[in-house]
Amino acid sequence: MSHCHCVNCRKAHAAAFSTNLEIHPRQLTFLRGKDSLRSYRTDSGSHTAFCTTCGSTLVCWGDGDPDPTYVCAATLDTEFHGKPEFHIFVSGRVPWHEIRDQLPRFERNSDDPI
Amino acid sequence: MNASEKTLEGSCLCQKVRYRITGKVGPLTHCHCTHCRKTHGAAFASYLDVPRENLTFVSGEKDLVTYQAESGTKRGFCPDCGAVITCWGDDESKVIEIAAGTLDTPLGKIEAHHIWVRSRVPWYEIRDGFSQHPEGSQS
């Protein structure tokens, strides 16, 4: 689970940052409303799916993934006590939100070579 | 309030909706309520108070889809990329809230506060020193 400060996440979620819980696609089942989802692909190859009724962004994935590989943790109804592990794309963070925890920070993606 | 009162511009993710804000804005409200975090799919939503007369849409105003939550709060979002742009409670209100995450112009120093913190997610701790309200800003 990680916080992403990239401009695409910031815009898609219209928030300071997104928090994404990595999953295996097999773990995700839509109980209802899958037909209400619409997806959007950014120029950088990230995809989000949002509800066409309320705009809620629920899942995301990248080019090359046939199915969602991240769940937007804030949409969970079940109380979730997992902990975010790091911040990515901190170079894109907004000036009005400071990162004040001690989690590792990556300028770009966590697996980008230095 | 935004001390510099500079012109602010913003847009949704796909650029269908673009807006411009002039004049005084603020404060910035970080809302941790269930509706805000679900709608945004984020730990909290951050809305900038803008007098309605200071907001102009450069494009896409008529494309915004409105969703009204059970509380009566309305939000406008882009139907192509899902980005929430606007939030308001009363159609007659002189102030509209703009989702600060959609700003393109960097926002300078601005007064901020957290509301509905009693609903905050367990995996995000508020450490920024801004005031926290268990429910609305009057609580």
Brief characterization of the structure:
The complex is a heterodimer of chains A (114) and B (139). Chain A is mainly β and 114 residues long. In chain A, 6% of the residues lie in helices and 27% in strands.
Please give the structural blueprint.
The complex is a heterodimer of chains A (114) and B (139).
Chain A: E1 2-4, H1 7-13, E2 18-22, E3 37-41, E4 46-51, E5 57-62, E6 70-72, E7 86-88
Parallel strand pairs in A: 1-7
Antiparallel strand pairs in A: 1-2, 2-6, 3-4, 4-5, 5-6
Chain B: E1 8-11, E2 18-21, E3 28-31, H1 34-40, E4 45-51, E5 55-59, E6 65-68, E7 74-77, E8 84-88, E9 95-99, E10 112-115, E11 131-132
Parallel strand pairs in B: 3-10, 10-11
Antiparallel strand pairs in B: 1-2, 2-5, 3-4, 4-9, 6-7, 7-8, 8-9
Number of contiguous helices of chain A: 1
Strand content of chain B: 25-35%
Task: Kindly name the structural category of chain B.
Answer: mainly beta
Classified by CATH, the class of chain B is Mainly Beta
Oligomer description:
heterodimer
At CATH level 2, the architecture of chain B is Beta Complex
The major pleated sheet of chain A works out as: 7 strands, mixed
Main interface by residue count: A-B, 42 and 46 residues
Mean pLDDT of chain B: 93
Which regions of chain B contain 5 or more consecutive residues with pLDDT less than 50? none
Average pLDDT rating of chain A: 93
The total of helices of chain B stands at 1
